[in-house]
Design goal:
Radius of gyration: 16 Å
Low-confidence stretches: none
Mean pLDDT: 94
Shape: globular
Distance between the termini: 11 Å
Helix content: 10-25%
Strand content: 35-45%
């Protein structure tokens, strides 16, 4: 059963930003899964949960997203806390969107915020290898590790209607 987004999104953002790195999966044109580790920045404004990830539009994932514009992100912590976002994904190729994404990542608090210029070849948002992928979750799941340990805790899931 789907919980209201306002009960799931804040818990998701808090856990994701505490864990920072997510296993991310796309599907290539032949339907084969590919996984990698990415570092999204999530936002909850009280109504919408959105995310961005800086990644290269020249990478294999760009071809995957052209065929299947979806990404799955899963976070795991040794305490067994887990959260997952299944997302529609779209490149923001506009100069304004690339600048806004760069600035959002650079201005976010550590550990989720970072200077994108630390990535080789990313001298600024206009760099050819720099891209902003905008994320719009259609399903979000959050599970406190205490659930698995039989110590109570909560499992919350939201899915877009």
């Amino acid at each position: 059963m789907s919980a209201p987004l306002d009960q799931v999104a804040p818990a998701f953002v808090a856990m994701a930003h505490r864990i920072v790195w997510a296993g991310a999966a796309t599907v290539d044109a032949e339907g084969r899964p590919w996984s990698r580790v990415l570092h999204p920045l999530w936002s909850w404004d009280g109504e919408a949960l959105t995310g961005i990830v800086a990644t290269s539009p020249l990478s294999p994932k760009a071809g995957h997203l052209a065929a299947h514009p979806h990404v799955s992100f899963t976070y795991w912590h040794p305490s067994q806390d887990t959260c997952t976002a299944l997302c529609d994904a779209a490149w923001d190729d506009s100069p304004e969107g690339r600048r806004a994404g760069w600035d959002a990542l650079a201005g976010a608090p550590e550990p989720v915020g970072y200077d994108p210029a630390i990535i080789p070849g990313w001298d600024g948002p206009e760099s050819a290898g720099f891209g902003i992928l905008r994320l719009r979750p259609w399903r979000v799941h959050v599970m406190d590790g205490t659930v698995l340990l039989g110590q109570g805790g909560a499992t919350r899931t939201w899915q877009r209607g």
